[in-house]
Amino acid sequence: MAIQLGRVGIWSPSYIWEADDAHEAAAEIDAAGYGALWLGAAAPDLKLPEKLLAATDRLVVATGIVNVWAVDATELAASFHRLATAHPNRFLLGLGVSHAPIVERLGRSYTRPLDYLADYLDALDNAAEPVPVDQRVLAALRPKALTLAGQRSAGAHPYLITPEHTRIARETLGPGPLLAPEQKVVLATDPSTARALARASVGYYLRLPNYVRSLLALGFTEDDVAGGGSDRLIDTLVAWGTPDQIAKRIAEHHDAGADHVAIQVLSPDIDLATRSGRPPRQAWQTLAAAIL
């Protein structure tokens, strides 16, 4: 794989990069030594990753993800090459099939999503300027999606998972493909504070069937995934505590077979309900000292 992500990166929602200090925050991530910046729910025009690539010198910028139902493959391939040409080996195109409620709001029918994704990858391969296999990754949770990721892309970028899922994913992918899971973290040692921030994020995903099925397959119960999630579920999905405690969870993913772990800092500076906020720059710097 020509693109080098390093061992640890930052995952963040795209909307926080509308803040006035976005360029400075991206430059700080780069200087701190993080390998990549993953942008959640990235707009398919790729203007945001283009801006952040221009603001940094070394950092890889990745989409985590572009929703394949939201943009024609030919159009996306052209946008990809705009960035790949200007910033060689620094842009990784993360793709995914999203979720039925989101896709249906686009006026699309969420039927046979993996077949749709495979056809989409065919279109990227057959574009006037194809998107190279080793410069794209797929969001994947279950075995069929992970297998497709290993066969048709550089690898997999699983979201809302556990180190046990990372172990299973590595067994499914085999030793070659990239495995880059996302890991939510909270820099707080008080259980009530940490879990409140965690539930504000995790609760949304527990309304999406794809994630619920994945968590049930990992051994969680219907009670665990009800409401905002049980303490057991929250504590397994979200690493909270001191920087050293969070570093331990990241190491568990690496020990289970992850090549790269994208940490998502859950912070009071980010309001998930209104999709607004600022980059949690201090938390990123604090964690860098412990994990890089």
Automatic annotation (TrEMBL):
<dbReference type="InterPro" id="IPR050766">
    <property type="entry name" value="Bact_Lucif_Oxidored"/>
</dbReference>
<dbReference type="Pfam" id="PF00296">
    <property type="entry name" value="Bac_luciferase"/>
</dbReference>
<protein>
    <submittedName>
        <fullName>Putative F420-dependent oxidoreductase</fullName>
    </submittedName>
</protein>
<dbReference type="InterPro" id="IPR019922">
    <property type="entry name" value="Lucif-like_OxRdatse_MSMEG_4141"/>
</dbReference>
<dbReference type="GO" id="GO:0005829">
    <property type="term" value="C:cytosol"/>
</dbReference>
<feature type="domain" description="Luciferase-like">
    <location>
        <begin position="18"/>
        <end position="260"/>
    </location>
</feature>
<dbReference type="InterPro" id="IPR036661">
    <property type="entry name" value="Luciferase-like_sf"/>
</dbReference>
<dbReference type="InterPro" id="IPR011251">
    <property type="entry name" value="Luciferase-like_dom"/>
</dbReference>
<dbReference type="GO" id="GO:0016705">
    <property type="term" value="F:oxidoreductase activity, acting on paired donors, with incorporation or reduction of molecular oxygen"/>
</dbReference>
